[in-house]
Amino acid sequence: MAHSASEFTPLQLAVLTVSDTRNLDNDTSGQLLVDNATGAGHQLCGRQLLPDDIYQIRACVSAWIADPAVQVVLITGGTGFTGRDSTPEAITPLLDKTVDGFGELFRHLSWQEIGTSTLQSRALAGLANRTLIVCMPGSTGACRTAWEGILAEQLDSRTRPCNFVQHLSAVAACETRG
Questions:
Q1: CA angle at residue 91 from 169 to 164, to 5 degrees?
Q2: What string of DSSP letters covers 27-57?
Q3: Looking only at Cα atoms, what is the longest distance across the chain?
Q4: Using H for helix, E for strand and C for coil, what is the string for 62-84?
Q5: CB-CB contact of 71 with 171 (8 Å)
Q6: pTM of the complete model
Q7: N or C: which end of the chain has fewer CB within 10 A?
Q8: Which Pfam families does the protein's record reference (predicted)?
């Protein structure tokens, strides 16, 4: 949790909620990620809510990966074991590199909150086209755990000895889009 005196670099993020039951009015998990990211000084470039469908998820995230204005994609939902949960299957083929430690650390932090039930989380992260993609469970508590325990620091250019900012594409300001 060490920080240096360097300046904060705001990132441009997109948030995707994967759910068959939520809408933007009751999407507390996606809203938590938006609020925390913008509250930390990052800019929201896009927000979508899609059903648990591999191809819709993959199409949306592929467009964001190809968009030079998006540096980080935060995805909530679809990481469990129910029949429709398909976020890992949608995202994994898109990744150039996996961030194995994200899922491991998330489950470690989550274990302190929900015990062995954390085994049923398939949280994951990776890089694609110099865009960080992070997949978290759909619960608001899980998104809070991921943000507070991992993402707030790893998306902060001042975090030392390392953070993800140096690995992301450098872009100009984005327009908010869906």
A1: 30
A2: -HHHHHHHHHHHHTT-EEEEEEEE-S-HHHH
A3: 47
A4: HHHHHCCCCCEEEEECCCCCCCC
A5: yes
A6: 0.93
A7: N
A8: MoCF_biosynth (PF00994)
Structure tokens given for 167 = 């690995």
Give the Cα separation of 128 and 90 in Å (integer): 13
Token pair 């609020």: residue: 35
Q: Quick one: which H or E segment has residue 88?
A: helix 87-91
